[in-house]
Design goal:
About 50% of the residues lie in helices and about 15% in strands. The chain is an alpha/beta fold. The chain has three domains: about 110 residues, Helix Hairpins, CATH 1.10.287; about 120 residues, 3-Layer(aba) Sandwich (Rossmann fold), CATH 3.40.50; about 110 residues, 2-Layer Sandwich (Alpha-Beta Plaits), CATH 3.30.70.1450. The radius of gyration is 32 Å and the shape is elongated.
Length: about 350
Amino acid sequence: MPRVAPNLNAAEPAGLLGSPVRNLVVGVSFVLVVVALATLGYWLAGWPLGDAFYMVVVTVYTVGYGEVHPVDTPLLRALTIATIVLGCTGMIFLTGALVQFITLNQLNQIFGLRRMNIQIDKLDRHVIVCGFGRLGTALAQELHAGGTSFVLLERDEASAARARHLGFLCMQDDATDAAVLRDAGVMRARTLATVLPNDAANVFITLRARGLNPNLEIIARGEQPGTEAMLLQAGANKVVLPTHIGAERIAELIMYQDTARFIRGSAQMRDFEQVLHTLGLELELIEAAPDSKMVGRTIEAVEQLANGGLFIVRVNRPGDGAITNPDSKTVIQAGDGVVIVGRGAKARALGGLFDT
């Protein structure tokens, strides 16, 4: 997998001049020490602290407005000469270090961007991932682990910097822009995955990408169930609804495990929760209170009432054991332990429907 930039520390020359950051820190520290010691010297010579500091600053910065008090003793003259020599030398070094730091950062950005563009231009039959959020991060890590070439499109500066820090090719730009998709090699790519948490943006990216490359495989993420049809009409080959996938995956895992081992805190439960966390989902086990408005309703009715915000994947019924992969017509009874899958805080809020 190509990386955006090599490890600069490995190529860094040894010695004081090897690091612009180190030079900057040394320069600032040296000037501060000179200013502090010179100010202390004038103060010990009987000058007021404010006058002493002012004298040192105008001397170090070579402004030369004039002496605050007469420098008429050998000690004061020696102190002033030392302040001039050391202070001016320190400021010259600090100025050079600052210019070096700014210039090298700008050059690194310019050449880093050029190097990244060269690497992208060399890609063929690669994958384009739009979005580096929770799902995008997990997807990029899996592609990287599998040795698949890919390029990320991320609009947020912090997220793009994080992607580059991980060694991924990442363009900080808007994936809804056709020119950006062209720069990412959409005409040569084999797959585009748009996994933004915004349904409208995913639909727009799908339309753009399909118009640019009719043979491209497009996999799109949808947040709301009604978005699936829109994404398919826009040109997506496959639509991923994380909530549905999480529910199906958990139900599948549960069905093939001993129900007695389904205990919160167990290794099995931690595996389940890790799968859900990757998909942006959470697993909740809620007991249906006797006076809950959910008691007496079917699972289908409960899920419709939650408007797609949660899915029931298991019912623990006292005396009857666990009902894995329950039928949609299963009726919730008082005291049932209902295992729901949903999106974070929303799932917990909807879980309150089972309380009194």
